[in-house]
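chain below, 269 aa
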Amino acid sequence: AELVNPAARFENLDVTTDAFRDLLRETTPDVIIHQAAQIDVRRSVREPLLDTHINVVGTVNLLQGAVDAGVRRVIFASSGGTVYGDTETLPTPEQHPGAPESAYGAAKLSAEIYGRMYQHLHGLEFVALRYANVYGPRQDPHGEAGVVAIFTQRLLRGEACVINGDGKQTRDYVFVDDVVQANMLAMTAPTGAYNIGTGRETDVNELFTLIANACGSDLVAGHGEGKAGEQKRSCLDITAAREGLGWTPEVQLPAGLERTVAFFSRVAA
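prediction:
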């Protein structure tokens, strides 16, 4: 007789559906690490209803399912850059008022508010990890969040790279292994919101140079038009994560880029 996997019906499950809550009731997890999302900021501006449905309604659906299933804690992947928007306080601490400039950022902040409400009303422990710009092996090169993967793959193929605008816009790049460690620590740490970054700004021009060096490439990037509404600077204060989670990032940007380039080099071979 053919073997049937009882979990097969839950493959490719949508976090916004009743079936997802059914999965939680059947599996009764102790902790949920909630990474499901619509992740493209520009798409969120073009399609705010879609973004809200996935990132807000989907999160509320998960929170309700967690309560119904007796889950102890939810760890939510929030956004350190888009929740704050452009600020004059850099590195930016968690206490800074949120001023999202995209539907994506507004959805992440709304989801955090719902999480805190569920903790207050139902005792569901809630931790929001406000990620900086995460990069590393296996990163999806499609979409704006994949700048490291995009530059890496193009440089390895000897193709031209284009930087949007003057390249002076900054981000806080944090390696994926460090983000994984933060999630592990968040399973038992005090509840609340924590920035997960490095506390260091890197502009796109510098980032490209570092990636080109790691690729052994002497190609020079061109410059195109800047993207309307793009955040100019982003850098996160990680004091709370250091004190509350016992977490500090271990992988410096040049080393993380070398590991990322090595991965894509193997894939391309």
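The mean pLDDT is 93. The beta strands are 31-34, 73-79, 125-131, 133-135, 162-164, 170-171, 173-175, 192-196, 202-203, 222-224.
thats it, cya
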